[in-house]
Specification:
Helix content is about 30%, strand content about 25%. By secondary structure, the chain is an alpha/beta fold.
């Protein structure tokens, strides 16, 4: 799954600055709206070009406060309007969002990282056309360290996720196994397995685990525990990595966004990535 090919935009020449990159946002929930507002305020080298959402009329209303109006269009109409698309939609829509942009050799920023595992043809398509799939850091820290360690030999990667009850409620794995968490009074481990299994059972919750797996030793070798904890108000993740270059552990507590399944830092990580595209100094790989 890992592909180190980079197709990021080339830096501007001394003759003049390149035109701004046109950014499309697919999905206008908590993350998509925050991105739209950030782009409207201004990210050097980028401009918001278009958005798409399930309800285009409502999307237009949600964007009415922006300084610069942008069209709200159907998914199939996004690609001609933009150079980069940010996927902020339900995981099942990833192929519809990504394929047109990848066929055109463009960049797709994917937040539903788990959907990549069931749509691996997208990686092949990007390879064929020179397009690129970007999985931003999102709610997880230390991906640079994991990616660097993967250039050597990683022996094990283990992740333990603890979430407030409302951040896990309704997950397909819980429904399928008749695991009820709404009334628990103490922490309950609801899952133990691989990142691939977690991506299937918790498609809206564990994109961080898939990002970790893709950066490291793959979704079948990355082990994961998921706990529902009624005492928590933040999504917490602890990662332990053992490799021939370093042994390290990391932990993070993410403040949920308006969507309890997603941390506020997810949108900020996309904004940080977009800023790097045109930055004269880039820190981190």
């Amino acid at each position: 799954m890992r592909d180190s090919t980079q197709t990021a935009p080339q830096p501007a020449t001394a003759r003049g600055a390149r035109p701004p990159l046109r950014i499309a946002i697919a999905g206008l929930g908590a993350i998509g709206l925050k991105l739209a507002e950030a782009l409207d305020r201004g990210i050097p080298g980028c401009v918001l070009a278009a958005v798409s959402a399930n309800d285009l009329g409502n999307a237009a209303k949600r964007l009415s406060h922006l300084k610069r109006p942008v069209p709200a269009v159907a998914l199939g109409e996004l690609e001609p309007l933009a150079d980069i698309v940010v996927e902020c939609a339900p995981a099942k829509l990833l192929p519809d969002i990504a394929e047109p942009f990848l066929r055109a050799g463009k960049i797709v920023i994917v937040l539903s990282a788990g959907a990549i595992l069931v749509n691996e043809h997208l990686v092949g398509l990007a390879h064929q056309t020179g397009g690129q799939i970007v999985v931003p850091t999102g709610a997880l820290l230390g991906l640079d360290a994991v990616t660097a360690a993967a250039e050597g030999d990683i022996r094990s990667v283990r992740m333990v996720t603890r979430k407030p009850v409302r951040g896990l409620s309704g997950a397909p794995y819980l429904v399928e196994h008749n695991i009820r968490i709404e009334d628990i009074t103490a922490p309950l481990r609801v899952f133990k397995g691989t990142a691939r299994e977690a991506a299937i059972g918790f498609p809206a919750n564990l994109n961080v685990a898939v990002a970790l797996a893709l950066a490291g030793i793959g979704p079948d070798n990355t082990t994961l525990e998921i706990w529902a904890d009624p005492s928590l108000t933040r999504n917490t993740h602890r990662i332990e990595v053992d490799s021939d270059s370093a042994g390290f552990s990391m932990s993070i507590e993410n403040v949920p966004s308006d969507n309890p399944k997603t941390g506020r830092i997810t949108a900020l990580s996309v904004i940080a990535y977009l800023r790097k595209l045109g930055a004269p100094l880039r820190v981190g790989s």
